[in-house]
Amino acid sequence: MDFLITIVVIIIILVIIMKLLENKQNNLYAKYNIHVTGQGFKHLGGHPYIKANQDVSIWVQNTNVVLITNKDRFEIPINNILDIQIQNNEQLTNRVTLTRLATLGVFALATPKTETTNNQYLYLKYLEKNIEIECIFKADPIFSHAGEILSTVNRLKLENA
Q1: 113 by DSSP, 3-state: which?
Q2: Which positions ≥6 away from 104 have C-beta within 8 Å?
Q3: Which positions ≥6 away from 108 have C-beta within 8 Å?
Q4: What is the DSSP letter of 140?
Q5: Starting from the edge strand earliest in sequence, which strands make up the sheet with 131-139, in order?
Q6: Over the range 13-35, which residues count as b (16 or more CB within 10 Å of their CB) and which as e?
Q7: Backbone phi, then psi, for 53, in 5-degree steps?
Q8: CA dihedral sign, ordered 97, 84, 64, 159
Q9: Dihedral of alpha carbons 131, 161, 40, 37, sign
Q10: CA torsion angle for 13, 14, 17, 18 (degrees, to 10)?
Q11: How far is Cα 54 from Cα 69, in angstroms, rounded to an integer?
């Protein structure tokens, strides 16, 4: 019987702790006007100031998409975002990139692209100082919330138009 009471007390304590953490997160979201956050992104390339394979968190605020690394924070105004998509391996590898063309020339079109796992990628294209920047982020399937980020950015773009 004591064991059962101990388990019930532990469960109650865990529920209280989870509620406190949820309230703290909601306060943080309200303070910084955050709609959604995504953890577990890996920058594959494209951003001029983020190294390849660096871990990135993405916040969507009222007027900005914020890319956060362990050292830096980059804000992209929602109105500067030209395109945002979620792509899988096939969609991503079918995209003939400038890097691929520069490396392989016309053979880029004929070179087979092999990929066996089915990952999810967030493709982000935005305007910075009148230059189009295209970034690719590999999304963690559990913690990235890539679909929610995509929907929120599209909704904010419509609301701010």
Answers
A1: coil
A2: 111
A3: 96, 100, 101
A4: P
A5: 73-77, 64-68, 54-61, 34-45, 131-139, 120-128, 81-88
A6: eeeeeeeeeeeeeeeeeeeeebb
A7: 65, 15
A8: positive
A9: positive
A10: -150
A11: 7
Reading the block at residue 81, the tokens are: 């975002």
Task: Output the pTM of the full model.
Answer: 0.68
* Half-sphere exposure in the Cβ direction for 126 (13 Å, CA): 25
The candidate with the shortest Cα–Cα distance to 70, out of 99, 39, 29, 48, is 39
* Residue type for position 87: Q
Q: By the 8 A CB rule, do 95 and 46 touch?
A: no
Q: Considering the domain 35-160 in this protein, what is its CATH number?
A: 2.30.29.30
Task: Write down the mean pLDDT value for the chain.
Answer: 80
pLDDT tens track for 84-128: 998 887 776 666 455 555 545 555 455 555 545 678 899 999 999
Q: Read off the tokens for 119.
A: 């990952």
Using CA atoms, how far residue 36 sits from 65, 100, 124, 156, in Å, is 10, 33, 16, 12
Confidence of residue 143 (pLDDT cuts 50, 70, 90): confident
Is the CB of residue 92 less than 8 Å from the CB of residue 114? no
